[in-house]
Specification:
The protein has about 200 residues and is of the alpha/beta class. It contains five helices and eleven strands. The longest helix has 13 residues.
């Protein structure tokens, strides 16, 4: 199964016939992806299931319909197991950004976290999850973000990257993280839940 968000509404590409939500079901081969995106963006539907009997091939086909923008980011823990959050555009988020040309995914993830948060001594512990969301900038684009679990013992003051509209950078304990997750994106909840389930 692949879950792609348009705003916070999912396109679920699946080969499972078990319905786990109340979204309409369409045959993957019969849909026009741009029409589905338009319906979700304009809130005509809250989500959609695209059923396929050939998940991997149809997923590759789905990727050819959009310009793919690769990105990488991190869920960072400090020695007290608090999670690093950023506050951008009135929403709590996790640090991430575009992968530059000839840059490895891991290098990009560390660089973006360092730049957005003013933190150092980052170590990648493991891969966490890959998230997908569609946004519009001159055309529909699919941002594919590779997330890593990281840690750092950096204990100096953190510096939000203001030119990226980040106004706060904070480590949050479980209780405060749960509050922050009430004002975040579905993809960020997915990253956090994946970390908690591991």
């Amino acid at each position: 199964m692949y879950k792609v968000f348009v705003n916070d509404s999912p396109i679920i590409v699946t080969s499972s016939q078990q319905k786990e939500n109340n979204f309409p079901v369409y045959q993957f081969k019969n849909v026009v992806i741009d029409e589905i995106i338009h319906k979700l963006r304009n809130k005509h539907i809250d989500g959609v299931n695209l059923y396929t009997t050939d998940l991997e091939n149809d997923w590759l086909l789905f990727l050819t319909k959009l310009k793919v923008v690769p990105a990488a980011g991190g869920l960072v823990l400090n020695p007290k197991k608090k999670v690093l959050f950023i506050y951008r555009n009135n929403v709590w988020d996790l640090p991430k950004g575009r992968i530059e040309k000839d840059e490895s995914i891991e290098t990009a993830a560390i660089r973006e976290v360092e730049e957005e948060c003013g933190i150092f001594n980052l170590k990648i512990i493991k891969e966490l999850v890959t998230t997908y969301h569609i946004y519009y900038h001159e055309e529909n684009k699919l941002k594919v973000t590779y997330w890593f679990l990281m840690d750092s013992n950096y204990d100096k003051e953190l510096t939000p990257q203001l030119e990226e509209s980040i106004t706060k950078v904070l480590f949050k304990n479980d209780e405060n993280a749960k509050i922050a997750l009430k004002n975040t994106y579905s993809n960020i909840k997915l990253v956090y839940d994946t970390y908690k389930e591991a």
